[in-house]
Amino acid sequence: MLVSRRRTLFSHLTGLVVTLGFVCTAHADVNPQTQVPPPQDVPYPGTLTLHVDANDTGQGIFRVRETIPVKAGALTLLYPQWIPGDHSPSGPISMLAGLTLSANGKPLAWTRDKYDVFAFHVDVPEGVANIDAAFQYLSPRRDDEGFEITDRMLDMEWSKVSLYPAGYFTRGISFVPSMTLPTGWQFGTALETASQAGDTTTFKPVTFNNLVDSPVYAGKHFKRVDLNPGGAAPVHLDMVADAPKYLEMTPEQLKAHRALVTQAEKLFGSHHYDHYDFLFSLSDVLSGNGTEHHQSSENGLGTDYFTDWSDNAPGRDLLAHEYTHSWNGKFRRPADLWTPNFNVAMGDSLLWVYEGQTQYWGYVLTARSGMWSGEQFRDALALVAAKYDRNRPGFEWRTLRDTTNDPVTAHRSPLPYRSWQMSEEYYSGGQMMWLAVDAKIRALTHGSKSLDDFAKAFFGIDNGSYVTKTYTFEDVVAALNGVAAYDWAKLLHGYVDENRPSLLDGLAASGWKLVYDDKPSDFEKNSDKQSPARHKIGFAYSIGLVVGGSGQIADVRWNGPAFKAGISTGTTLIAVNGHAYKAETLKEAIVAAETDKAPIQLLLKYQDEYRTVPVDYHGGLQHPHLVRIASAPDYLSQIAAPKK
C-alpha cells in the first residue's frame, strides 16, 4: 500500500545524503591551484533571490537578476558545471554574458578564476550586506544547437540562469526563485507557487539542489492533464505545443498514459515525490529532449505525437524512461554520481545501472501500460538486439563499462564511425544485459521471481522519501542475491568488463531469437522517420550504411561491405548504378545484387570530389525481427504483460 507523506518541497531539502565517504573524496577532487573554496556541509547564511525575465522570445535572451546575502571579504560565485542527468561538465558557461556585480548601487569588480572558468571572485567591501548580480543567458539560436525558447514555448533550466556561492553544499543554499513570462503563457514545473503578480510568478523557497532539479516548461498553448486521479501523490502531464490541436488526447491515449503511472507504482511499490510533473513539449522546433528530475522530467517529441499516434510508436518510451529515473537515478543514485555541488566532478562508472536498467524498464513499462502493443515491444527490442549482433564491432577493443566515460569524452557529439568508436552503450547494451538478468532470475526461481522483485527491493524502499540514497556495485550484487542466490558479480562483470559480451543471451533465455528478412517491421519504418536527423534510412545490417534523406551518409558500419569499399561518413550519395539516389533506388539495387553478382556502383561526393565506388555486396536486404523458440519458456511475453 502506498502511504501519502505530503510535505512542502522545502522541508525535504535539508535531508542528509548517506555517503559521507564519498563527500571526502569529492573534496579531494577540487583543484588545489584554484582559489575556489571546497564545499562544506553547513547552511549558507541568508536566502538568495533569483529572478529570470523570459519575455524576449524573439532574440532568445533570458535576463537574470540575483540578490546574494554576503559578509565582507572574499566571495566566489560558481556557474553550474556538472549537470545531473548530463553526466558531464556540460554547463553552458559560454552562453553567460553581461555579468555585472554591484553593492549599494555601486559596481564591484570581479575576476574569473585562473584555472576554473566557471568561478568568479569578488571582494565584498565592509558594510555590504547584499550584492546584486545581473547577467544574460543567451540561448542557442540555430537548429543544430537545440532551441530552448521559441515564440510559442520555452524550456528553462535553472542551472543555466543562476550563480551560487562556493564553499557550501547546494542543499544548504536557499533560494527564492521567480520568473516573468510573456503575457498569456502558462507553465508547468515541480516548484510550488508562492504568489502571482501579473506575468510574474514567485515560487516557494527551495534549496539550490532542488531548484536545479525543477525546470520550467511554459508556452502560449498549454494543457495540464491529471494522470493519477485519486492517487496517493498527484501526477500531471504538463504539455506545451506549437498549436492547440496538438494537445488533444483520445480517451485511449489518456488511458495508456494513466496506466504508465499505475504500472510504475505497481513495479516499484512506492513513490519518491510529493507530486510529479511530466513536462512535455509537442513541437517540431523544441523537440528531441529527455532529462530526468526527481519530481518532474523534461520530455520533447514532435507535434504529431497524439495526432499521428499509429505511426509514432518509436520514441513513445521516452516518458516511461524519464519517469523511471525518479526511482533509479534520482532517489537511488550511484555513489560516484552524487556530488555536494554542481562544480565537483561526477563519476559515471555505474551508468549501466542508472541508465541501462532505466532503459530496460522504459521499454517494459511502455508495453505494460499499453503505449506499445506486444508486437511493437518485440520489434523495438529486435532493433536493439540487431545493433549488438551486427553493428557494434567496437566491443572488440572497448568494454561496456568503458563507454560510461563517453558523456565526458564525447559530449554526445557526432562521431565519424560510431559502430567502431561506440557511444554510451551502457544504455542499450545495459538494457540487453538486464534482460539476461531478468531471464536468469526467472529460470533460477522457476518463474516465481523476476527483476521486478529486485526493482521493488532496491528502488522501492523508503516509500514517500526522496532523500537521495546512494549505492555501489556491491549493493547491486547484494540486492540481486536477496532475490535469488547466484554468482551475480561474475555475471555482471562478464557483461560490463569483458570484450565482446554476449548481449543477445537474454533473448534466447527469454524464449526468442533474432532473425533477419527483407521486410522491415512497421516499427522500423517509423523509427527511420522519427530519428533525430529526420528520415534516415538504415541499411546498416546489409550493405552497411545509414543514409539521410538528402543522401548524406550518416554512418558506415566498421568493416562492413561499404566500409571495405572505402566509403566514409559525411559523404553524399549522388547516384546508384547510374540512377539518381533515392532510398527506393538503393533498395532495388541491393535486391537485384542478390542474383546479379556485379558490384553495386555508388556515385559519391565528398567535399569537392566525385568518385564512383563499387560495393561487392550480395546478401539482400536485412531487417531484424524476433521469433519464438518453441522449446523455451516465453519469459518475454510475461515481462511485457501488465501487472495486476
Q: Tell me, what is the CATH class of the domain at 333-501?
A: Mainly Alpha
- Poorly predicted spans: 1-30
Q: Span from first to last CA?
A: 14 Å
CATH architecture label name of the domain at 333-501: Orthogonal Bundle
**What's the gyration radius in Å?**
26 Å
CATH topology of the domain at 333-501: Neutral Protease, domain 2
Q: If helices are DSSP runs of H or I spanning 4 or more residues, what is the number of helices? A: 19
Q: Averaged pLDDT, please?
A: 93
What profile does the largest beta sheet have? 9 strands, mixed
| Overall morphology | globular
The CATH H-level homologous superfamily of the domain at 333-501: Neutral Protease Domain 2
Percentage of residues assigned to helices: 25-40%
Helix/strand/pairing category: alpha+beta
User: How large is the share of residues in beta strands?
Assistant: 25-35%
Could you walk me through the main structural features you see in this protein, from its secondary elements to its overall organization?
The chain is of the alpha+beta class and 644 residues long. Among the domains are: 333-501, Neutral Protease Domain 2 (Neutral Protease, domain 2), CATH 1.10.390; 542-621, Roll (Pdz3 Domain). The protein is 26% helix and 25% strand. It has 19 helices and 32 strands. Mean pLDDT is 93; it is low at 1-30.
